[in-house]
Every structure is written in C-alpha cells, then in structure tokens.
Amino acid sequence: MRLFVGLRPSESLRAALAVLQDRLRAAGITGRYLDPRNLHMTLAFIGEWPEHITPVLPQVAHPFSIRLARPGIFPEVKVLWAGVEESEPLHGLADQVRNNLTGHGIPFDPKAFNPHITLLRKPSVPDDTVLSGIAVPDAEMIVDEVCLYRSDHLDTGMEYTVIGSSGRAGA
C-alpha cells in the first residue's frame, strides 16, 4: 500500500478551497486541478508500506484551528498550493506524527514539514507573484483527528482515500 498521514479538510474548508480553485481558473491559470474530494494536508509521506498503521497515529490532545492563507508555488515539483497561517500546534502535531512513525520503525520522507494543500499540478504560472491578486476565501477548520491515507494511481489520476484515523484524545 502507498500511504501517508495527513489532515482531512472539513466540508467548509473543502468548499473554500474549491472556490479558490475557481478563482485560479478565472485568472487564467491552467494545470491539472485536483478534485476537491482529494484535497488534504500531508503531515508525513510514507510511501509503500505493507501494513495498516492506524494504531501509531497520535490523538489530538487539544483541538486547534487552522486558517487558509496565501497560495504559492513549489516550482521544483510544479505544484500550486494553498497555505495555512503559521501554527505552533500544527507543527507540533506534525512532529508528533513523525516521532511516532520513527518510534515504530516506519520510514517516511524526511523533508521538512511545510503546511500546504496542493490545488493543482503543472500550473501555468511563471512565479508566485501572479498569485498576489487572487483573493483567498476566509476559511478555517478545527483539527481534531489525524488520518491515514492510501493513494491509488487510477487512469484519471491519483485518488486519496482515508483508511483510518485517530480522533481527539479523551473523546
């Protein structure tokens, strides 16, 4: 199985991300847009792993909110994303996920955590200065679960499915 650990956007955040995608399209930005049902925030990418690892996911001890922020581009991987405002609890949760994986001998991509939600691949934007005129919807969500995702390559592209989650501690 090809796995990663991430956050599943709330319905309201997913709707706001779809609006942002529409605004990018209206601005003439082309590329391979992700289906809003596939949107997520990766906390740790594992890759191929033979087992279901939901038991190693941390519970969220104290739910917290994250808020959408400006879009940006990772030019080296040709990805346009929506950012979220800096959040100490979010970085702490990502660290906890990664520490749990390490503690259970589960390898993951060691790149530094950079909180974002991929909106489209191979964008037709020369750099992120073009994005400064795009209004980001005012949206936030409460983080109260960590999800284990499976990614499957289909003829229509990648599909991401939640196959397990850990909720709020004490819930």
Task: Write a structural description.
With 171 residues, the protein is of the alpha+beta class. It has a single domain (2-166), classed as Alpha-Beta Complex (Cyclic Phosphodiesterase, Chain: A). Helices cover 19% and strands 36% of the residues. The chain has two helices and nine strands, in the order βαββββαββββ. It has helices at residues 11-26, 88-103; strands at 2-7, 32-33, 41-48, 64-74, 79-84, 116-121, 140-143, 146-154, 157-166. Strands 2-6-5-4-7 form a five-stranded antiparallel sheet. Strands 3-1-8-9 form a four-stranded antiparallel sheet, with helices on one face. A hairpin with a 4-residue loop joins strand 4 and strand 5 (79-84). The longest helix has 16 residues, at 11-26. It is globular and about 45 Å long.
Overall structural domain count: 1
**Order of helix and strand elements from N to C terminus:** EHEEEEHEEEE
CATH superfamily: Cyclic phosphodiesterase
Q: Could you say what the CATH architecture is? A: Alpha-Beta Complex
Largest sheet: 5 strands, antiparallel
Assign an overall shape: globular
Structural class: alpha+beta
| Rg over alpha carbons | 16 Å
Mean pLDDT metric: 93
Distance between the termini: 29 Å
Q: If you consult CATH, what is the topology?
A: Cyclic Phosphodiesterase, Chain: A
How many DSSP helices?
A: 2
Oligomeric state as shown: single chain
Q: Supply the CATH class.
A: Alpha Beta
Residue windows where pLDDT falls under 50 for at least 5 positions: none
Instruction: Identify the strand order in the major beta sheet.
Output: 2-6-5-4-7
Beta strand count: 9
